[in-house]
Design brief:
Layout (H helix, E strand, L loop, with lengths): L18 E7 L6 H13 L4 E7 L13 H4 L8 H13 L2 E5 L9 H9 L13 E8 L4 H15 L3 E8 L10 H20 L7 H12 L4 E2 L4 H5 L16 H19 L2 E2 L4
Helix pairs in contact: 1-6, 7-9
The chain binds flavin mononucleotide.
């Protein structure tokens, strides 16, 4: 893994704000998808960006054991926190993240799925509200879009403000030569991602994103065997229907409130148990 942004000299060009982009290689090697990711990076290289790369295959991250310590006690209780935390910190420090994600059986490669399992507690306690993502996937023939969609829905659950998707049919096993059309599409979407990140504009979240935010906030009043990390986390958002600084329309605010009320009603009749 590379060191982090603070060790890189940041320069600004033509008045654009210099932004920090983290690139996460979620595949087990540097194959077709990495090649296309590098094309996007080359295209963006002339802009005011500092890049940092993480290759998940270099991390040696063991499988999530399913201990649920992250949900109950906090993510620092994860037996693999030492490996996961540096990547979480890099995401935190970045303005945007590019995910390089080969299509394996229409879904995420196991190596990335394992990483996202370690971050699943964020569906209960989201945090990356100001981050934007570009998700690049190549497939042999079909289902690159299912792959980018799957990751997009996970990332919005973590709080990501917007996910740009670049699904591409490479028709190749390890010998992809991007066509002119693929390159045009790559540059177009990479350009949109860059402009959005550097604008600093925050978008109104989709309705689906309001469900976990308001439901888990309300469920902190649910009866449990002992307090969980969720109980410490949610009071900071009391009375808020989404994270501060992220715009909401009146309709979405109302929807968030309704979800919150449903959660409150549900919490009265629900008990959650934990094995100690
Ligand atoms: C384990 C595995 C699963 C795959 N699943 C699919 C699939 O569901 N659909 C498809 O069209 N191609 C599939 N392929 C082909 C890859 O998606 C395709 O070669 C892609 O460009 C690989 O990217 P990479 O070289 O970055 O790993 C699969 C390849 C592998 C190795």
């Amino acid at each position: 893994m590379e060191k982090g942004y603070n060790e890189i000299k940041i320069q600004s060009d033509r008045g654009f704000k210099t932004i920090k982009i983290l690139i996460i290689n979620g595949g087990p090697h540097r194959g077709n998808t990495w090649l296309l990711t590098e094309k996007a990076k080359e295209y963006l290289a002339g802009k005011s960006i500092v890049f940092t790369e993480v290759h998940l295959s270099d991390m040696g991250l063991p499988f999530c054991t399913g201990c649920s310590g992250c949900f109950r006690l906090g993510h620092k209780a994860c037996p693999h926190n030492g490996a996961v935390q540096p990547v979480m910190d890099l995401i935190e420090q970045s303005d945007g993240v590019i995910f390089s994600v080969p299509c394996f059986q229409g879904h995420l490669p196991g190596i990335l799925k394992n990483f996202t399992d370690h971050m699943a507690f964020m569906l209960h306690r989201p945090r990356y509200f100001t981050k934007k993502a570009l998700i690049i996937s190549t497939t042999g023939g079909v289902m690159a879009r299912s792959t980018t969609k799957a990751l997009s829905s996970t990332l919005t659950g973590w709080g990501f403000n917007r996910c740009y998707q670049l699904p591409v049919a490479a028709y190749s096993w390890n010998d992809y030569r991007p066509t002119e059309k693929d390159l045009r599409k790559t540059y177009k979407i990479a350009g949109k991602f860059y402009r959005d990140v550097s604008s600093g504009k925050m978008h109104v979240p989709k309705a689906g994103v309001l469900i976990p935010f308001n439901l888990f906030q309300a469920l902190t009043s649910v009866k449990t065997d002992y307090p969980t990390e969720d109980n410490d986390f949610w009071p900071r958002y009391r009375g808020m229907r989404y994270a501060p600084g992220i715009p909401l329309t009146p309709g979405k605010r109302l929807l968030g409130w309704l979800i919150y009320q449903m959660g409150r009603a549900l919490s009265k009749s629900t008990t959650v148990t934990y094995r100690k």
